[in-house]
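Hello Y.,

Per our agreement to keep a running log of every chain we model this quarter, I'm adding this entry. I've kept the format consistent with earlier entries: sequence first, then predicted structure.
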Amino acid sequence: MPRFRLASYNIHLGIGRDGEFQPARIAQVVSEIEADVIALQEVSLGAGKFNLLDYLATQTGMQAIAAPTLVSRVGEYGNALLTRLHVVEVHRWDLSVGRHEPRGAIDALLHGNGGNLRVLATHLGLRPGERRKQIRALLEIIRRDNRFPTALLGDVNEWFLWGRPLRWMHRYFERTPALPTFPSGHPLFALDRIWLEPRRALMRMEVHASTVARMASDHLPIVADIELEDAVALTRQLRDRSATVA
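Predicted structure for the entry above:
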């Protein structure tokens, strides 16, 4: 059966809890995780003094997918994916709401380890109203095409486990563990999340809390190991579920 390791990590522009910019620490944490796919948030992406995403891709040997949400005179900033899998196709969705900070999502179809996997990676807004609109938009995007097993991962900025956006996510994907990832020195809040369709694909989920990870960023990475079923049977089940949800 196809197996994948997924992770999500808000890297805080490579600035650690000690206030120092040390991208080598972020690269070390990414290497420690040994993920097939890792979603990154708060990444400098190019056109500036230092392209953190290019650096991480070079240091880890992974392929990079950039999705800028902010572009300024000092460079680009936003979301990214690093992956060891073959990238079949990529879409970038705008999730911006009004005059709030621009937000977006990467939607990538990946192939490897004997199977296909759709991955959506995002970083949601700071205000509850933003997040409600962004979750509705993401769920609509996912419902449009559910031919493949799907993972939604990222920093969702939900401080309360009973918030409406989380309830909507659990209703569609089924509940997954809410593991504290923030702040990295003494994690209390489950801001970084991973959801899966089908839910039974989840084998294990944990927070990566190595010594370096506790210092490298203000968030800890969240990691999930998944195992997919037979592709033909799974595709049929997903299509049946889509008809039921609709």
